[in-house]
């Protein structure tokens, strides 16, 4: 199982770097990685709650890929640097879009999944 | 231009980061405690190390750029996680106060971790200048 987690983690990190190279802007690529990765894990989490997914699939896509694709340290550091440089508008946009925005999307996605698909 | 070597390095860092995250989760989280403190531990630790390395002058001078990216983007980026935070929160929906405390500990704690790492790195940079 640990093998699938490592493999998923390698691919997740490579995909995040790929997004970084495509978008040039760290802010957009990090947000997008966190957004996509979070929705993926919410989907797998719902599947797992209903016993519809194997241990290996969850290890590879959930713990490995989605865990490595998303990141907390980078967002946190972007926020910290914006605070340090007194860019308060950037602080506001970053924290609202990431900490509130992705959370709302994750919740909506979770409830929609459970309402329309897994009921 | 795609830097293939950089992708390989980041992949290796990502593998190590995910493995350490999974290992730490298994070791530190006691199953009878519902509060997901392990995720906080992992994210705050990663946040501290990232800000520390970014502000540490000798790390930026002494190591090649690809190695720095393998550590910062690959290893620490994969070690810390955002998606697990989301599913942790979904599991805490029935306990809104605890959910709020969890999220606050993560966000404010992350900024405190970054600030202390920043100060620590600056003090080490100063020491390096003097000697």
Question: Could you characterize what this model shows?
Answer:
- The complex is a heterodimer of chains A (119) and B (131).
- Chain A has one domain.
- Chain A is 87% helix and 0% strand.
- Chain A has helices at 2-23, 26-49, 55-69, 73-84, 88-117.
- The model of chain A has no long low-confidence stretch (mean pLDDT 95).
- Chain B has 131 residues and is mostly helical.
- Chain B has one domain (4-28, 36-126).
- Chain B has six helices and no strands.
- The longest helix of chain B has 35 residues, at 96-130.
- The chains are: A mainly alpha (119), B mainly alpha (131).
- Chains A and B meet through helix 1, helix 2, helix 3, helix 4 and helix 5 of A and helix 1, helix 2, helix 4, helix 5 and helix 6 of B.
List keywords for this structure.
heterodimer, A: 119 residues, mainly alpha, 5 helices, globular, B: 131 residues
Brief summary of the model shown:
The complex is a heterodimer of chains A (119) and B (131). Chain A has helices at 2-23, 26-49, 55-69, 73-84, 88-117. In chain A, 87% of the residues lie in helices and 0% in strands.
């Amino acid at each position: 199982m640990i093998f699938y987690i490592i493999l998923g983690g390698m691919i997740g990190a490579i995909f995040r770097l790929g997004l970084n190279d495509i978008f040039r802007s760290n802010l957009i690529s990090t947000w997008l990685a966190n957004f996509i990765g979070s929705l993926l894990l919410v989907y797998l989490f719902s599947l797992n709650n209903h016993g519809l997914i194997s241990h290996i699939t969850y290890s590879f896509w959930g713990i490995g890929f989605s865990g490595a694709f998303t990141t907390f340290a980078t967002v946190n550091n972007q926020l910290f640097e914006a605070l340090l440089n007194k860019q308060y508008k950037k602080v506001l946009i970053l924290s609202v879009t990431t900490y509130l925005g992705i959370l709302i999307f994750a919740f909506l996605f979770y409830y929609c999944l459970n309402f329309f698909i897994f009921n | 231009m795609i830097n293939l070597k950089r992708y390989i390095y980041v992949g290796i860092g990502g593998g190590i980061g995910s493995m350490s995250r999974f290992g730490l989760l298994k070791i530190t989280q006691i199953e009878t405690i519902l509060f997901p403190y392990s995720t906080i531990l992992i994210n705050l630790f990663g946040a501290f190390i990232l800000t520390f390395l970014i502000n540490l002058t000798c790390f930026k001078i002494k190591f090649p750029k690809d190695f720095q990216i393998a550590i910062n983007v690959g290893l620490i980026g994969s070690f810390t996680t955002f998606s697990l935070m989301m599913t942790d929160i979904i599991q805490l929906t029935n306990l809104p106060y605890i959910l709020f405390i969890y999220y606050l500990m993560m966000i404010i704690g992350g900024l405190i971790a970054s600030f202390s790492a920043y100060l620590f790195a600056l003090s080490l940079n100063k020491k390096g200048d003097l000697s």
